[in-house]
Amino acid sequence: MKKLVGRVVLALFVANVASIHIGVEASWLSKAWQRLEKSLEKSEEISKLPNPNDKQYSYLREQSDLAGIGPYIPKYEMTVSGIPMGIHVNDVKKSLGKPTSEDMKTYGRNYPIYTLTYGGVTFETSKPEYSPYTKPGHISKTTINNRDGATLRGISVGDRLMQVYYIYGRPTFVSKDEWFYGKFGNDVHTGIWFVHDGYKVTKIKLGTQSFEHIDSISNIL
Question: Where does 48-160 have alpha helices with state H?
């Protein structure tokens, strides 16, 4: 009798272990399948996005002078955290309070260049010849480095490029790792840049700035 009971207990134990093993295996396969589906969906989404090799961008890349090409982006479109482009640094402080960090350098004959940082958002002034918004102490460029800030239309770091495409439409120019909406200048350009990893936004630049790579316009970088 004791042997019979022992065999029954052993059989139940083995069956339970086998069940657990099958359950773990099924769970792993399910997760692996979900990862594969997400990867395929991601690849399909990326394939639908504007590409640096598109005819529109290849044509622009062949031009010797792009100054003046592209749409004008109004100042209010470049508002971040309630701070519009062209506002004075003192007004930024009145609105947002004491910055996380603050820096002031001089250019030329005591022309001040300010940098105010609030968490992941940085507001800067520029050299006098660099920006249509440049007056001493007035913000000419803003950079969003994380989800502390967002564009006026609600795009932030970590959002998908497809979201940018739905909201902003086709970019003025596309390089390997940046989408640019705005007007070309000579050395610097005015508008909104979405720096990305090919799928999601990693940084946003607004105002009068330049591309991450100096050869982004003439080459696919």
Answer: 55-62, 89-96
Give the residue among 207, 183, 203, 182 at the shortest CA–CA distance from 194: 203
Tell me the H-state helices in 48-133: 55-62, 89-96
For the record, the structure tokens of 96 come out as: 């947002």
The continuous run of DSSP H or E covering 192 comes out as strand 189-196
3-state SS class at 25: helix
Residue (of 91, 95, 98) closest to 125 by Cα position: 91
Residue 181 is encoded by which pair of tokens? 């909406």
In the block, residue with structure tokens 């004075």: 88
Report the alpha-carbon distance of residue 78 to residue 31 in Å, rounded. 41
Percent helix, strand and coil across the chain, each to the nearest 5: 35, 25, 40
Cα(68)–Cα(93) distance, integer angstroms: 33
- By C-alpha distance, which of 185, 186, 188, 192 is closest to 207? 192
Burial state string for 153-176 with b = 16 or more CB within 10 A and e = fewer than 16: eebbbebbbebbbeebeebbbbbe
Eight-state DSSP code of residue 78: G
* Closest of 121, 123, 117 to residue 88, by C-alpha: 123
pLDDT along the chain (221 residues), means of 10: 47 49 63 66 87 92 89 94 94 96 85 93 83 76 97 97 97 95 88 96 95 77 62
Single-letter amino acid code for the residue at 84 = P
